[in-house]
Records
---
Amino acid sequence: MSSEFGCKVKISIFGQSHGRAVGVIINGLPAGENIDMDELYRFMARRRPGKNALSTSRSEADLPVFLSGIKDNKTCGTPLCAVIYNSDARSSDYDEFLDKPRPSHADYTAYIKWQGSADMAGGGHFSGRLTAPLCIAGAIASQILKRRGIFVGVHLASVGSVRDNAFPLFPGKELFEAISRKEFPVIDDEKGALMQAVIANAAAASDSVGGIIECAAIGLPAGLGSPMFDGMENKLAAALFGIPAVKGVEFGSGFNGSLLRGSENNDPFCIGTSGSIETAANNSGGILGGITNGMPLILRTAIKPTPSIGLPQQSVSLSRLEPEKLIIKGRHDPCIAHRAVPVVEAVTAAVLLDLFIEEGEI
Amino acid sequence: MSSEFGCKVKISIFGQSHGRAVGVIINGLPAGENIDMDELYRFMARRRPGKNALSTSRSEADLPVFLSGIKDNKTCGTPLCAVIYNSDARSSDYDEFLDKPRPSHADYTAYIKWQGSADMAGGGHFSGRLTAPLCIAGAIASQILKRRGIFVGVHLASVGSVRDNAFPLFPGKELFEAISRKEFPVIDDEKGALMQAVIANAAAASDSVGGIIECAAIGLPAGLGSPMFDGMENKLAAALFGIPAVKGVEFGSGFNGSLLRGSENNDPFCIGTSGSIETAANNSGGILGGITNGMPLILRTAIKPTPSIGLPQQSVSLSRLEPEKLIIKGRHDPCIAHRAVPVVEAVTAAVLLDLFIEEGEI
Amino acid sequence: MSSEFGCKVKISIFGQSHGRAVGVIINGLPAGENIDMDELYRFMARRRPGKNALSTSRSEADLPVFLSGIKDNKTCGTPLCAVIYNSDARSSDYDEFLDKPRPSHADYTAYIKWQGSADMAGGGHFSGRLTAPLCIAGAIASQILKRRGIFVGVHLASVGSVRDNAFPLFPGKELFEAISRKEFPVIDDEKGALMQAVIANAAAASDSVGGIIECAAIGLPAGLGSPMFDGMENKLAAALFGIPAVKGVEFGSGFNGSLLRGSENNDPFCIGTSGSIETAANNSGGILGGITNGMPLILRTAIKPTPSIGLPQQSVSLSRLEPEKLIIKGRHDPCIAHRAVPVVEAVTAAVLLDLFIEEGEI
Amino acid sequence: MSSEFGCKVKISIFGQSHGRAVGVIINGLPAGENIDMDELYRFMARRRPGKNALSTSRSEADLPVFLSGIKDNKTCGTPLCAVIYNSDARSSDYDEFLDKPRPSHADYTAYIKWQGSADMAGGGHFSGRLTAPLCIAGAIASQILKRRGIFVGVHLASVGSVRDNAFPLFPGKELFEAISRKEFPVIDDEKGALMQAVIANAAAASDSVGGIIECAAIGLPAGLGSPMFDGMENKLAAALFGIPAVKGVEFGSGFNGSLLRGSENNDPFCIGTSGSIETAANNSGGILGGITNGMPLILRTAIKPTPSIGLPQQSVSLSRLEPEKLIIKGRHDPCIAHRAVPVVEAVTAAVLLDLFIEEGEI
């Protein structure tokens, strides 16, 4: 019943989309860590709406205000609170949905859970806007990890049926950095152009598309995590499903691995160029038994097509229990997968920092 | 760092495969719940090795002994502890792997994490044997849920590229019950026969195959769960990744949903035959915004091919940091996906009971 | 490592005394609960400094701003965040203590824990100012409990050796209400006058005094709590020790009970006037085996004398490891026990609400 | 709702007094730690009944069986489970109390909580017998701490009004060791003899007495713990109230500190003989702001008089709601405070190990 994750580093998200502010409290950050505000702003800019023609026109400053936990831009050991005040909110757009829930949004489930008391304007606490404070947390976690040689990278692996290249066996931080600076976060820009065409086509049809995001982390020591329920995969999956629209999480070869034989899916051991133990493939995604093996951590998340589409849809009246046609007006993201890319990085970085600290590495 | 999951109903698993016992403690079970021991034994029998030619020859009684928490076969409110004593253990088979880790097993990550102190005979705490106490917990949770009209069903959705039928839009408890009584847990026995052929072929080639398990839950009230990090998907995924060999979890249309347009993936609302609100499709898998919507809950887990295969593999010597050929002797499951079927049901039932109680429904 | 307590209702406090704001996030509040803002302000006014000559001269509006979680003054089910912006902060007063820690404050332990990175101006995150957001949470919890017939009352049981009357066996909500409206929160105002004289004497001597706070809760159903580590006493004590300056917590006859014989300390059962089961004494403080028995819950907390005193004290230079005389300038509370009275009520109400909801009562 | 405590080192207790076994699961122990079984048995012998004329005549072997988590007497990193099988149980003695609850026992609260389903024979899960598995956990924690130079000591500070000497400002491990080897765990044996006379007198009068236990820990680094709700005092108190019959917990000068002036209660800083920072008094009990300051940690717990006494008492019939006289037959401990002494040590050691590991010290 809480919008919180993490054990040693606890991240608690609050806010409704059209309320006074959204924000985050982070408990358990190590003290004395410098926060590079420009780098943090750049991180946040990657998920910002209104960046290009593919995203909603709502524009916001989205600049966080730090209420606690830092002193002279350094963490001071006690809880960090950062808020983003809401400025550009038009709540009345959403009144219609109170009785006529939008398909595949949380309108109906929120109505049932909080019977008339939910504040669902703009999607309320379920809105993609809540990923802005997640990015604050992720940007901070990322900076702390980078200082320890751990880098998280992320790209849009597919939109509809158009696929980007996969990460190579040993992706480098330069690749991560390069993708993060792109307008459209893919490895192969030609594939990116095709993806954008798919999105534009869907938009032209008043429809939407989904995608898959691939995330990698390098520099992690072997030995992080635990067997059974407190392991790497458990914690990452639990947090990643907190990102709106995520409907699947897989590690390494994931669902495709179920199509392989053991002899194909197993990762043979080898001695790497530096003389250390590696594997010649990485179908395990860097995790075995819930514990990192020192290879790059690889995960993918499935992002469903934006449920807000311009086409007429079938809803019901909650008060009259009768079918109702629904038209969602206004502009909406025809795809949110590319905007969710930095969010997946943020959540992954936050979980990795948590486990890194839990193991006593910081 | 703990082999535990759940909030109100906490399930803690202990034991090493070749140690004295494996077992489970369950905190937070409601009091006064009858435990039908025969039904519990039947549940456990579904995952037992040695049931047919497709599984390992190790045979065990696997009958749990209840040390606490029940009185006259009724839960008494305080922690329930059940243990399964180990009888048929041959530890020396595993000595070789201490220095020569098996590819895609946890031998290497356990070695790094606990530097020489791990007890990895038979796979130690990472072994599939640890799913036996999980099934005790699941069988108990399942009985409690059934009394409230909630039923969990599960089938083997695919082995390699052979797919079973998917669950229908509204699966019934009779279907669940029928599958659970089959030797090979599929909906369509012809597909099941093909799957078994795939497994037998792999076995003949000293190789292994993976599969996908689909799970459904019916009778859940709408409104269970929470947005963001404490929701249905988060909790189910976190627990399901605790099952050895699970490398992916998805809900509803999951990864395939990323290929659809919003107009295809959205679930239109309708008024059901009983006059209540339903959706005409279930690509959401019964969950929106982390909260149940009253439709059947649908999830799938990817099970990797058994990493133990008879073919020669490439390992390394941990002490000498040199490549080493590895031959895993003895008989091993050419596929564990069919044996993991009841385990997925067990974990799902346990999580659902936890959330059901958390919402004050019991 | 987190400034948070509670299981179903999680309360997370943030802020440094002289930072931009202090505040609270509450996860898990029931939805649809009206928050009477005037009543909340009255609650908060009870702990406010500058109320009379016995308290520090720092004056603050202390009016909370609600950033999330409410809509039209009603809880909306998702996380509630309330902040109090700091206005009257003079940080340079505290620079001296960075190298010369004040005895029996947290200056030294914070220095060791966060080596130079702590923000200790005004006491930082350890300041009594952090009890203001605690009171926000407590005031909200209190309002929700009152609607269910549960009332929490509190009085200053002693200052130095002057003792107020104890609560009667069955205190009423009218008594709680009456005490809460007093300038000085005691049952017997003559004792209160004596206490104030003790405080004034200490102040005149540039010294300080401590006290004991007694808290009662009525209307609780029997059966709340659990044996061993998740019970009423465990949860209340864990939260109450989070109030700065609390050094002891006891229930019922507490430490004095160790002086009694069993025949004196045991609470004989009887049938109450309403025909229900009661006890003729309440040395158990309403809790047996961690579970409420339906009698009033009674607890006491020991508040140490304010460590900030005007008298010269012995410190050390952290940089030079040499003894140093220390004079704490400015005005300081000669006693904080009376200001902590509503804070004890706040924390108790918050824990009771948590357990009440955990048991499925709301 | 769970009989568990700890964050990194989680200790979960199970069992009913007259059930098949009581036991403990410990998650999160560091791997490779040797467990000296003889030392562990000695620890457990200190709480054993039947040791002398002052305790109950029930005799049990109480030797734990380790089901998991160790290999060759070394911890292996995964959950440790130890059980003590029950052998000498006579359940029918307790049938009478099902309808006629014993005053100041948990009979009534358990009845209300689990309406007829509780297993209360011998006190069920509330029994002092459940402290035996606590001592297993404490003995293990203690051995791990000792290897890091941290020692926990404990003595019976009072029985009724007879007081033992307090621990000196800097107690040594030799003192701790010496007390632990005594039949009656006091510093001053003459005081101990007086205490035993008090107990014998109470026994002769078919009555009982309570006491206070003082516990100290030395060798703790400064900087362990946190402000507010996750600190040393919070965690210790939460765990200590899990020991049956504990009704009060205080640190340093505790409740007595409320009688002192700040100038008396404050601990002046000084440079110790080794050149490090110390305080000249220890009214803070080694904890300021929830964080250790490097001085000995000092706490006291109040143990109520044994509620089972031979004198006739007033109960009620739960079924008939009428007053009933109650005579508790058989022999009962006239005092449990001396038997609780090692239990307080066990719980303190377990919490300290948890925090020590949480800080990354192991």
---
Amino acid sequence: MHAYDQVAIVGVGLLGGSIGLAAKTRRIARCVVGIGRDDAKLDAAVARGIIDEATTNLAAGVQEANLVVICTPVDMVTETATQVFTHAAPTCLVTDVGSTKLAIVEAVERQMGQKSAQFVGSHPLAGDHRTGAEHARADLFEGRTVVITPTKATAPDATGRVSNFWHAVGADVVRLTPEEHDAAVAITSHLPHMVASALAAATPRSVLALTATGWADTTRVAAGDALLWRQIFAANRTQVLAALDQFDHHLDALRKALLEEDCTQLERLLAEGKQIRDAVGN
Amino acid sequence: MHAYDQVAIVGVGLLGGSIGLAAKTRRIARCVVGIGRDDAKLDAAVARGIIDEATTNLAAGVQEANLVVICTPVDMVTETATQVFTHAAPTCLVTDVGSTKLAIVEAVERQMGQKSAQFVGSHPLAGDHRTGAEHARADLFEGRTVVITPTKATAPDATGRVSNFWHAVGADVVRLTPEEHDAAVAITSHLPHMVASALAAATPRSVLALTATGWADTTRVAAGDALLWRQIFAANRTQVLAALDQFDHHLDALRKALLEEDCTQLERLLAEGKQIRDAVGN
């Protein structure tokens, strides 16, 4: 017995594809419908068993769905949600995987009114610097955290069911307000990306041959798609700017200790960073 | 037939231990002597086949050596080299694995005079955030780059033989001046470490549960030993401060674009970082 008869996924990339694979592998959905813009890519996803059916027609794709997961870039989530609510059944649950939550949740609630009770914002803290359905994995969410951000406007039943869906694909679920979520990921995800990008850009090509694993690790996320990340930064602008200030504060302290040849302070600051890094492991 | 009868390694940690293992596995040395301060650790390294013999007496350990590799923290390389040159045969080659080169090479040449013709500074761009001989691997140097920094004071024959040694353990060898080396690694290694440390320190413990692979990658090197890194930063202070300025320039440009909501510029800067990161791969 499947928990859902039909799950529709809008945007069959790394995350959407992995949700499809996980929903099929774990028998969460009888049928997974993939909705996209590129017929060739959708056909390839069907051929690889990532989705059962595919369509470029969103209205048709969501019509019979019990759950729609919006996996478009953050800039398109709100517009897509509006279309989904227009064409889906009133009982259909809608969620997304956007990396920012406040702008999306506010816009959906403003535009959809009562209907938005069926919408629960989600953000799986899973992914890869590689994109595309060809890298989709059924186990992408196993042991990872998915933040869900229901509000007062959300139906409690919808919250519970979306939470169960993420549990079913293997994730741990954490519930935060959209504001709490955005402030946290500004520090844990958006700030590292911006710092990694600046670090990569600050490296002259002439010394790239002298980079080793340290540089490769520290800059890895800078390989992410520039357009997608520009949209994420823009959608969480205030929190990212605050996180940058926080980072500056710590980097300036290190610089000052080095400038003043204050070895005790320099070692103390490095030990502070190490302690926090060690708390996470790997 | 081994290239060396005896290779002595001062400091049997991750690098020293891996050099020992590689020299034994690849039959570069008939006998590898490990010199350290801790009898128990040295005995463990002998038991694990990382070194053939062990001693806490540096004078005795280097007496018969044809090549001494100094693998102490950067702060102790010069003093150790002085002791090695005092007790080793005049034909004995001496090299090190310090992450900075100018301070070490200048000090050795100043203190050792003519004898320093047998000294060739080295820096293997290999390692791990884990330390200790227990993580030593015979293949640590395979496909990695080792920078050597001979000067006018170095005997050409010594340069050639040290270069051959690193080739023999599997590394590619790049020759730079000590100044060129220090400027390059300030950008490729020391700057990433300082940035990663600030990033880790800027992350409140309350949001650590919301970190994912991006944060883990970007901050990984911050787990390095605080004392060792304080010494590296101090030994390459001017170049690290210059690298920090370079980084600031790029981070400020990103911040300005975000602050001014200049999406075109923000995306352009992110694309610039991505392009450089993509040039390295993995």
